[in-house]
Amino acid sequence: MFKTEIIATHPTLPARVTRVTTAHGEFSTPAFMPVGTRAFVNHMTVTDLTDAGSQIILGGNTYHMLCAPGLDIIERAGGMHQFMAWHKPMLTDSGGFQVFSLSKQGNICRIDDVGAHFKHPINGKVIHLTPQTSIQTQKITGADIIMVFDECTPETGGRDAAEKAMARTARWLHESIDAHLAQPTSAYGYAQALFGIVQGGSFRDLREQSAAQIVASGVDGIAIGGEVIGFDMLKTREIIDWVRPLLPENKSRYTMGVGLRPQDLIDVVAAGIDMFDCVAPTRNARHGALYCGAIVEEKVDGHDWLRFVGATDTGHILIKKAIYATDDNPIMPGCACYTCQHFTRAYLHFLFKQKSQLYGQLACIHNVAVMHAVCAKMREIIINSGSLTRANLAQPGIEPTG
Fold this sequence. Notes:
- By secondary structure, this protein is α/β, with parallel strands linked by helices.
- The chain is 38% helix and 21% strand.
């Protein structure tokens, strides 16, 4: 059964370590989730993901699974865990963000109060994605954590657009809950947790109203969504501070789409967030942007915390640059990932210039491993300096190190 237990809390920040129990095992937070939108994490095998430190992934977005390979293929395989050969915890998105993106092209997708209506990108067949069909799809994909169907709030359109999106999200929240309670397990008999999604754009009163609605609904966890989350990190942190006092301590907190940079994870955990996902680490890796810096313990606004000190202003190096052609250093000194332990910048530069598929694999391994290393360091500093629930420390990987 799904359960969130607090292991330790930071003495002066809302940051915390939790242990989350799912039908496919446990994971410790703070936890970054690599994104396998189309039933695979780009250029990474299951072994790569595990060796890099992945405990949980976002696998098989609802919209994309409806399009390809189709629910009949997934159900025939026994669900996404079997289909992907990933037998650890998995979260899946409801399709709300993809619907939001597609709705900008009215000829492809149209949203109304019932749901979204879009054309299959291959055969042109009209597909109706509603709270009911989104939940039914997630029952067949079989993820351990599934999301309510929501409307992602745009940053254009002002308060009117934010209010309309929040109203639909509130309506769809309860329709999603009803569909989930009618069948609380996956199609394969595994318990599934349902998370609600706080919307409201950049308006404090709307965010607080939405958070109160989500909490009152009794869902298993709370996500914070909307176009601004992860895109504008200052506003993201501000929104978290608005809603955190309303959130129950014993439920997981998830910022959707956060993880463009390692520092982004550090910032939202300091504000009290447990989980996050982002396509950026693997997408940027494929295009030659490789994280490089140091995870440094230091005082941050008077708190004992962390900072990712980048080797460059951007926090990454561009491996395509000619200066790396003869550089025999690893991508990031001190990094324990497979790539850094075995290969040089010069070799990665060569692979990139050759457009080798091996480059993509080695680059993605590194960027994902850096995100996990940041999470591991945050768990360490919270446990070593914070208030511990020692009865819950009997789990490998989260014991105090000091």
